[in-house]
Amino acid sequence: MTLDAVWNAVANVESSIANGPIVPDVTPLEIRRHLASRYDFTMPLALDDVCADVEQMLRTWQVQVTHPRYFGLFNPSVVRPSVVADLLSAMYNPQLASWRTSPAANEIERHTLAWLIGKFGLPAAAIGTFTTGGAEANLSAVIVALTRAFPEYGDRGLRHLGTWPTIYLSAEAHHSFNKIAHMTGLGRRALRTVATDRYLKLDVEDLARQVADDRRRGFAPFMVVGTAGTTSAGAIDPLPDLARFCRAEELWFHVDAAWGGAAILSPRLKGHLAGIDAADSITCDAHKWFSVPMGAGMFLCRHPNAVVEAFRAETSYMPDSAAGPVLDPYRSSVQWSRRFIGLKLFLALAQQGESGYIEMIEHQARMGDALREALVRAGWRIVNSTPLPLVCFSRDGLINADFLAALYQRQIAWMSEVRLGDNAPVLRACITSFRTTESDIECVVREMSALTAGGV
Ligand SMILES: Cc1ncc(COP(=O)(O)O)c(C=O)c1O
Predict the structure, then answer these.
(1) Most distant CA atoms of the chain, gap in Å
(2) Is residue 289 lining ligand 1, measured as CB closer than 6 Å?
(3) Cα(310)–Cα(298) distance, rounded to whole angstroms?
(4) Ligand 1 centroid to 421 CA: how many Å?
(5) What is the pTM of this model?
(6) How many CB atoms are closer than 10 A to CB 165?
(7) Whose CA is nearest to atom 5 of ligand 1?
(8) Which residue, among 48, 72, 59, has the nearest Cα to 21 in the 3D structure?
(9) Beta-sheet pairing, 191-194 with 297-301
């Protein structure tokens, strides 16, 4: 297949987005009227026309997360090879459930995950799977940890345990764990909220206190979640201390590095993830800081046998397992039928190399520093502390809702509001695009100052 046409099409979209609006102004009714007026599906339509219409809708009716001035919720600009990967994967439609059906695709994924397993310092025997995203990876971690700690959980369920398993995490951990506690039958109250310090990092002394209290009261602590790059503020929990504590207390140590995990590639940043090599399992999303399209998460685990036990499946209708050192993904992960998620990361890595990734990641970290410095110069107060490119900030008298509405209406940038701890909500800006430049940042901060000077 010649790539020129795809490459040029992607380049055109990138430049049209970069030069266009960031935030849409549309009502649900407007979109529904448009769809109802054109698509009753009674007659076939010319694909060219439909595609042109869909592209027009996508250009005008969505927040452009790949815009260089989208400072948002970890949704990245996407590297071109990863777009090609999605096309290839749709064209060939490999079914990755069993190794025998898709040997090439399965081995490409295994090879890519083995590379990342090495980067995180997990043993070579560790196992990895691509997931739809971080939430599925976190779900996988809880299921595997539960199965390992309570072998009867798989066959007889939680109610036969005769105790109440509990998970420890800070209020800054991702909310997917609330849903996971619900879905696994643990119940949302099985989550113990551990205090944080003034930098929003999990407080290990409070963790130790809560684990000891729970043990005394007949609960069964089994898992601790440390976050490496919290969603709200980019805080990194004290991973080495958590690792030591979990080892001493025989607790499963999961690190949710959905966004921050990519920092492991950067010589400048990876020291901040020290201790992650001691994790029992890790969540890391390719569709965040690895800059590939959604959905591409990864679940990595030090204990392959525990994973195989947690997701075991026997059927006569699936192809027989292949001989040799291979695992069928349907027997070692949450999903059954599965698309070729890993190709996005494989193609991007192969095309730009690890060095290309380091450059991208460090560029974004530098842009985060530039944003922080420009905001301070312009009189804003920075309220979070992280080496990662995520800045939370405020200024006296600011009404966030009015300020953000004006920012969106003038198409200056997209950023959001967040509440850190019990404090009043502040603004949150994350550098999610490798195309954000210093001049984007200067322009945004200048325009923001003009807005506040104008009384917004
Ligand atoms: C720290 C963290 N963990 C997990 C998730 C969930 O990831 P996903 O949205 O890919 O399911 C997110 C999403 O932003 C996150 O920030």
Answers:
(1) 71
(2) no
(3) 17
(4) 19
(5) 0.97
(6) 23
(7) 134
(8) 59
(9) unpaired
Tell me which DSSP letter residue 302 carries.
Answer: S
Closest-CA residue, ligand 1 atom 7, reads: 134
Any atom of ligand 1 within 6 Å of the Cβ of 130: no
Spatial distance between the Cα atoms of 5 and 1, rounded to a whole number of angstroms = 10
If you search the block for the tokens 């099985």, which residue do you land on?
190
Cα 134 to ligand 1 centre (Å): 5
pLDDT at 323: 85
CB 150 within 8 A of CB 160: no
**Least confident stretch, 6-15, 40-49, 70-79, 424-433:** 6-15
d(CA 237, ligand 1 centre) in Å = 16
User: Which of 288, 258, 234 is CA-nearest to residue 65?
Assistant: 288
Q: What does the alpha-carbon distance between residue 51 and residue 79 come to, in Å, rounded to a whole number?
A: 22
* Burial profile 350-383: b = 16 or more Cβ within 10 angstroms, e = fewer: eebeeeebbebbbbbbebbebbbebbeeeebeeb
Query: How does pLDDT run across 6-32, given as a tens digit for each residue?
Result: 889 899 999 999 999 999 999 999 999
Q: Which helix (H) or strand (E) holds 225?
A: strand 219-227
Question: How far lies 304's CA from each of 25, 150, 242, 328, in Å?
Answer: 49, 16, 22, 13
Query: Do residues 135 and 143 make contact, with C-beta atoms less than 8 angstroms apart?
Result: no
**CB distance 22 to 69 below 8 Å:** yes
pLDDT in tens, 100-140: 999 999 999 999 999 999 999 999 999 999 999 999 999 99
At 28, which helix (H) or strand (E)? helix 28-38
The answer to whether the beta carbons of residues 165 and 146 sit under 8 Å apart is yes
The pick from 256, 281, 416 for probing ligand 1's pocket by mutation, whose C-beta has the most ligand atoms within 8 angstroms, reads 256
Ligand 1 atom 16 nearest Cα: 231
